[in-house]
Amino acid sequence: MTEQAQVEATGDTVGEAKWQALQELERLHPGLDRESVRFQVLSEGQRGILGVGASPARVLAAAEVDPRRVAPPVDDSDPVGLARAVVELAAQALGAGCRVDSSEDQDRIEILCSGGDLGVLIGKHGQTIDSIQYLANAIVHRRFGAEAPSIVLDAAGYRARRATVLHGIAERAVQQARSTGQPVGLEPMTAVERKVVHEHLKELGARSESEGAEPNRFVVVHGA
After folding, report:
1. 49 and 16: one domain?
2. Is the pLDDT of residue 28 over 80?
3. Which helix (H) or strand (E) holds 110?
4. Within-domain flag for 193
5. Cα–Cα distance for residue pair 84/105, rounded to 1 Å
6. Are both 84 and 152 inside the same structural domain?
7. Number of domains the chain is built from
8. How high is the mean pLDDT of the chain?
9. Mean pLDDT lowest for which of 21-30, 42-51, 92-101, 179-188?
10. For the whole model, what pTM was predicted?
């Protein structure tokens, strides 16, 4: 059984109004199939003269939704199932609609997302994916205790690509610190990225520490 959901939205252009309407539909109905949304242009708007007489574009967005649809049940009987459920629910809330796979070894669970809108899932400089990974770790460790495996969340190889970039930043900072004899402060990073940088600097024989307060905490690099 389905029912029709409708949202009216405005914008400076018809395209912007459609985008606003789509975002509101997805907020009201997580997991909405974007391909099922149909738009009706109510008004294309008017630009006006020097802003006088201007009016926004208006659209009506409609889609068939299942009012009985609820979030998928959470399997908390094992760490893998719980971690996957956390990631799936987060991806659904973001409208990413990605596929979630998992693999496990002795002390680590890797959750891999593919397809869908991975840019939304990753976020700027990985802030979103790091937040979801932190949340998954917190929930799993609260449920299964300190001995639970750590959760690593990745999306289409993002972690490896970003690590390569961070290693390059760390190596250039070490060169600068050693040539000038002065410490070098890097740009603010998430806790996950700072850990990658600290570990690589240790391999290079350089000393480092984090300074500042979140969300602007950053790494300071010393030449030795």
Report:
1. yes
2. no
3. strand 108-114
4. yes
5. 15
6. yes
7. 3
8. 86
9. 42-51
10. 0.61
Query: Which residues are CB-contacts of 224 (< 8 A; sequence separation ≥ 6)?
Result: 178, 205, 206, 207
Amino acid identity, position 85: A
Residues 127-149 as b or e (16 or more Cβ within 10 Å = b)? ebbbebbebbbebbbeeeeeebb
Last residue of a domain, one of 105, 138, 156: 156
User: What percentage of the chain carries pLDDT values higher than 90?
Assistant: 48
CATH number (domain holding residue 137)? 3.30.300.20
Exposed, middle or buried by CB within 10 Å (0-12, 13-18, 19+), for 198?
middle
Q: What number of CA atoms fall less than 13 Å from residue 71's CA on the CB side?
A: 13
The answer to whether residue 169 sits within a structural domain is: yes
Task: Calculate the CA 41 to chain-centre distance.
Answer: 32
Judge if 129 and 190 occupy the same domain: no
Any domain includes 117: yes
Q: Which DSSP letter does residue 173 get?
A: H
For residues 189 and 125, the answer to whether their CB atoms sit within 8 Å is: yes
Q: Token pair for residue 170?
A: 């760390």
CA dist 75 and 82 (Å) reads 5
Of 192, 201, 203, 193, give the one whose Cα is nearest residue 222.
201
Task: Give me the pLDDT at residue 165, please.
Answer: 95
Q: Are 100 and 152 part of one and the same domain?
A: yes
Residue span of the structural domain in which 38 resides? 3-65
Would 74 be classed as within a structural domain? Answer: no
- For residue 12, pLDDT over 90 is answered with no
Residue 131 CB contacts under 8 Å (≥ 6 apart), including other chains: 123
